[in-house]
Specification:
Distance between the termini: 22 Å
Number of helices: 7
Structural class: mainly alpha
Strand content: under 5%
Shape: globular
Helix content: 55-70%
């Protein structure tokens, strides 16, 4: 049920990001800016580690950053609740909605887009490591 991965650097990045977003939704907009800054740093770290802009962890962080940037526009700041709640779900339960969404992009999947794929993508249990690895194993079973 719980998937606390305190030995993983990425998990710590997400934990700090969740705290910063929580500060933001509680009324301190500096939390949003700091979360964006940390996400830029995290994106750079994973780009250097993976040596590819198309690596799945880099893609997830890029699209996460895009969500944070879009949400910065004041009338849209209510959207910050989505990554705030989602990031807490990621660090506590290992369920990363952004990774699941990114896995559906055409260049990240081999399976034809279908309702069954949507069902498997969003309702399957969280897996350790990349959501791609977990779905690949599940799809072959």
């Amino acid at each position: 049920m719980f998937m606390i991965e305190y030995k993983d650097t990425g998990w710590w990045y997400w934990l700090v990001t969740a705290v910063l977003l929580s500060l933001g939704v509680m009324g301190n907009p500096d939390g949003f800016l700091l979360a964006m800054g940390l996400t830029v740093f995290q994106l750079g770290h994973f780009y250097i580690r993976e040596k590819s802009i198309s690596a799945f962890p880099v893609q997830v962080r890029f699209w996460y950053l895009m969500l944070l940037i879009v949400s910065w526009y004041e009338p849209l700041q209510i959207l910050y609740w989505i990554p705030a709640i989602g990031t807490w779900a990621q660090i506590i339960f290992g369920y990363c909605a952004m990774a699941r969404i990114v896995s559906l992009f055409p260049w990240n999947r081999n399976e034809k887009f279908s309702l069954n794929l949507l069902y498997k993508t969003f309702l399957s249990r969280p897996v350790r490591g990349s959501v791609e690895q977990g779905f690949a194993a599940e799809l072959t079973e």
